[in-house]
Amino acid sequence: MSKKTLYSGGTVYTMDSSSVRAEAVLVEDGVIKAVGSKSELSDLADVHTRKVDLDGGFLVPGFIESHNHLSLYAFFLDHCNLGGGACETIDDVVQLLRAHGAATRDSAFIIGYGYDDTYTPSVHHLTKDDLDRVSTTRPVAVYHMSGHVGYVNSKAMELLGITGETKAPEGGWIERDESGNPTGKLEEMAWFHLVTDKLDTPTDPAKIQALIKKSVKEFNRYGVVGVHDAAIGVAGTGASVLAAYNRLEQMGELDIRAFLSTMVQSSADFVPEQVDGVGMGRKRVVVGGIKLFVDGSIQANTAAMLAPYRNRPGFSGELVVDKSELEQAVLKYHANGDHISIHANGDAAIELVVSAFEKAQRQHYRPDPRHMVIHCQTAHRSHIDRMKDAGVIPSFFGMHVHYYGDRHVDTFLGEERASRINPCGDAARAGLDFTLHTDTPVMPPWTMESIATAVARKTSSGRVLGEEQKISPHMALAAYTTMAAKCSYSENDRGSITPGKLADFTLLSADITRCEPEAIKDTAIFKTIIEDKTVYEA
């Protein structure tokens, strides 16, 4: 016997252009059977149909987080969180790491993440001397909130073999003092290859599965039913993470759809034998993408800009890969039919990436590649137009406007450049598909805050940054639903509440298309539903 559920008693916001609003939706065996009025659908129900009262809520398609690091976030759950305003001084950092070290004596390293130097009064990057206050006998490593910079203490440098003679890998930098000795701060490839690849990571399959399940539950709390987990394989975790995802799906315990992209920045990176290609159908796990990156982050001064940073005259950041190397990699994977996501924050980096995609299309045309430019913070309108012509989708880190907008104006970029970060308005006017993301663990998966920021463009101080780049609530929802589904070639299966598609829903407490923009971020997630199964309920 088939299993039917009738959802009614609220507003069904379908994101289907043929009929955006409805009263009810009927689901059969995890697939949407019909959408319409409550009376119409009640006639299609039977005595065995389960009835779900939406309690006046606003039912939308389940949110798809189009760029994050769910599996990395899972590992971070065992580490010390220094973000979210937890640390205003270096003393705060030291105290939190000491306490974490005392609670994790079985671990070799004391590891922290989320440190934001711009939140400390002295705008202070950590040094080995700071972290030596945590411990001189145990190695300490701290991730900057950008993920592109990190810090180690003297014991860690000793164990990792980082000395005054150590050369930084290509595309990486080791900060040194006047005598040429490392200060403890490393950037980009130096941080990745000299430190993170050698940090403790869980190896027990059951432990990894448990951590991923815990991470998934965090995403479910914010209405997320699907993720693009980018860069699996960092720190040597690729095979174990993929095995954990597959095992959870086999056991029926994976409450999210995961489109996985593998990091292939160097020959040492994980390349899985399992490559599923594009499109997900009803699968929960697909290895469908390749991840590359060409620069760092604006707030770490490592994004590659066309003009110098406001706080570092004469310095514009640097690319971590040269043009010919990137073009060769893009052509290789493009010609192979793979989906490619490339991290590019600065406008110099975006120019390089868009040009590489254009060249690949000229040499090996694909009608609808849907490659992605990740973050795409400082794209110009000309980049937007060229991405549309090349079949490329930008994914914007929307919350940067709120959390870093003021600092982009006052510290890093100045008013003119900062006002056009995350140019969602330009993309909407150009008719270019785009998405929004939170880049977890850089930020928690705060979907409603991401949507609210894209609509209101307000910084933490309350200033509107780039009025012309505001978008409507409907468009912001599309960036998490219909347009996000296209990134994994899944628009026939999800992204809208349409008959024949999967019953993946997010139930909100209010109609965010008819409330004040300021109220959107406070909208609650009532339920998260995947194939008619409630995986989160407030």
Describe the protein's architecture and organization:
There is one protein chain. Among the domains are: 79-198, Roll (Diaminopimelate Epimerase, Chain A, domain 1), CATH 3.10.310.70; 294-471, Metal-dependent hydrolases (TIM Barrel), CATH 3.20.20.140. Helix 3 links the parallel strand 7 (80-81) and strand 8. The chain has helices at 38-44, 70-76, 90-103, 128-132, 154-160, 189-194, 205-221, 238-250, 323-335, 347-363, 381-390, 400-412, 415-418, 424-430, 447-456, 473-480, 482-486, 517-520, and strands spanning 4-13, 21-28, 31-36, 50-53, 58-61, 63-68, 80-81, 110-115, 140-144, 149-152, 172-176, 182-188, 224-232, 257-263, 285-293, 339-344, 372-375, 393-397, 435-437, 505-508, 525-530, 533-537. The strands form 3 sheets. Strands 1, 2, 3, 4, 5, 20, 21 and 22 form an 8-stranded mixed beta sheet that branches. The protein has an 8-stranded parallel beta sheet with strand order 6-13-14-15-16-17-18-19. Strands 7-8-9-10-12-11 form a 6-stranded mixed beta sheet. It is an alpha/beta fold. Helix 2 (70-76) packs across helix 7 (205-221), helix 7 (205-221) crosses helix 8 and helix 10 runs parallel beside helix 11 (381-390). The radius of gyration is 23 Å and the shape is globular. The mean pLDDT is 93. It is built from 18 helices and 22 strands.
